[in-house]
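Please predict the structure of the following assembly.
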Amino acid sequence: MKTWMWLLPMAAFLSACVTINIYFPAAAAEKAADKIIDEVWQIKKDQQAPADEPAK
Amino acid sequence: MKNRLFAFCLLLSTLLATPFALAAADLEINTPAISSLKSSMQSRHGELAGFYASGAVGLTRDALVAVHDTNAVPLSQRQKVNSLVAAENNDRNALYKEIATANGHPEWEAEVRNTFAQRWVQKAQSGWWYQDASGSWAKK
């Protein structure tokens, strides 16, 4: 019973190590990059970079 | 005693499983350092935009900017372009480093840079110049 109980955290721990340390989150990085670029270049909509901003 | 051990194991499992959720979530980009770099780049973009459009300045494959066509810049403005490019590259290098560090993985800097290199070009306006994967200039 006691050994069985330690298996769960151990398994979680080992897979967590693999998950965080090896893989670069490419999709999340792309999303973060898009967000920053939109702000820096002041792009209002995705895929569009209007030269003139519509007057409000 | 058994109950307490069970509760402890459950708690430990929950704590250790948290990285799964974090790994799937967004990257941290809301640090003060990143915000200040962003606003510095944003205000500089007002000055750089004209030079992107004229082809004077282009986007490099390493996610920086570089002077692409000196002839597109009037003599009187060449010094200004050079300093704009240098300042922009300082900010960009700091930004990629900061994003990697803010997420606890300084070694991600190169991958962050690669991601940005692709996204800058993707989001560039048509007519702007960029370096393709081989390093030669192309017009979008």
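Residues 46-56 of chain A have pLDDT under 50 and may be disordered. The two ends of chain A are 69 Å apart (CA to CA).
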